[in-house]
Design brief:
309 residues; mainly alpha; 12 helices; 74% helix; 1% strand
């Protein structure tokens, strides 16, 4: 017999139907969000390829990848200076941010009191949301003069990849520390208590129990930070300058891929010209570099992932 409204048992049946309908709506919304994310990524790739393809009709692909001179005004499109500058700054930022970020995460997760953590962590996250152009001026007005005072940079030199790398490292440190701290706090309490039970010190628990257990989350935080460093624009443009110089010395001024895209996007190049389409060509390289970093990180995380049961 079919149960209808007004009969005994109809209320629970209707509530179950509404719950199922609500779950289906949420499932559809979540699926739509995932599909939109994928479509946006595909759209970006299609735009880069279609807009960048005409560039390679004018410039040899090999010369583009291996050339050491980037002077679009003279028709020289060897992108090694831009790529090396981007890698220099991302590398310096990683050296600065990883120890600071993971150290801060260990302190907040394992040593700090709860009231202290509630005050300090929002301040760190606020730094992550600071406009990057502000950090660029901070590099010019504080970091560069400090490097000059200790003799690392010559007096009068305003731009350098070193200053840019340090300020980008400061920029991504809160991102790495916040996400790493979340991963460490997700480690089951029983693992800590077990280590303390056999006489381990807090330092040993932090570095040999919690950190290895949270390694996949920590690595994800580092990858996000490095990807942010590779794609950073305004702070790098202000601190490193706009001279596409191929140099092995990080104290020299350099121009990154993103800084070049900003310079051309200001309207100096005619739409459809080789100089204009070159921003999509270097954008493809930037996309591939970021993708490679993520693939390496995913492989690393899968290898060391810890599953709790």
């Amino acid at each position: 017999m079919t149960t209808t409204a007004g009969t005994p048992g109809a209320g629970p049946v209707l509530r179950r139907r509404r719950r199922r309908l609500g779950e289906q709506v949420i499932l559809l919304l979540l699926g739509a969000a995932a599909v939109v994310s994928v479509l946006v990524t595909i759209g970006i790739v299609v735009t880069l390829v279609t807009e960048g393809a005409p560039f390679f009709a004018d410039v040899s692909f090999i010369d583009f990848l291996t050339g050491t001179v980037w002077q679009p005004v003279n028709g020289s499109y060897g992108m090694m200076p831009l790529l090396i500058a981007s890698l220099w700054i991302a590398g310096i930022a990683t050296v600065v941010a990883v120890p600071l970020g993971i150290g801060a995460a260990i302190y907040l997760s394992e040593y700090a009191t709860e009231p202290f953590r509630k005050v300090v962590k929002p301040i760190l996250e606020l730094l992550a949301g600071m406009p990057t152009i502000v950090l660029g001026f901070f590099a010019l007005e504080s970091i560069t003069p400090a490097l000059q005072d200790i003799g690392v940079l010559p007096d009068g030199q305003l731009f350098s990849a070193l200053s840019a790398g340090i300020v980008v490292g400061i920029l991504i440190t809160p991102l790495i520390s916040s996400l790493s701290e979340d991963a460490m706090r997700a480690v089951p309490r029983a693992m800590r208590e077990g280590a303390y039970g056999v006489g381990a010190t807090k330092r040993v628990v932090s570095t040999r129990v919690v950190l290895p257990a949270a390694l996949s989350g920590v690595m994800a935080a580092v990858v996000l930070g490095v990807s942010r460093a590779v794609g950073e624009t305004m702070a790098v443009t202000l601190a490193a300058g706009t001279q596409p110089i191929l140099s092995g010395d990080p104290r020299d001024p350099m121009q990154t891929i993103t800084a070049y895209i900003v310079a051309i996007s200001k309207g100096e190049a005619t739409r459809g010209s080789t100089q204009y389409t070159s921003i999509f060509a270097v954008g493809i390289v930037l996309f591939v570099v970021t993708l490679a970093i993520n693939l390496v990180a995913v492989r690393f995380v899968r290898r060391f992932r810890t599953v709790y049961q």
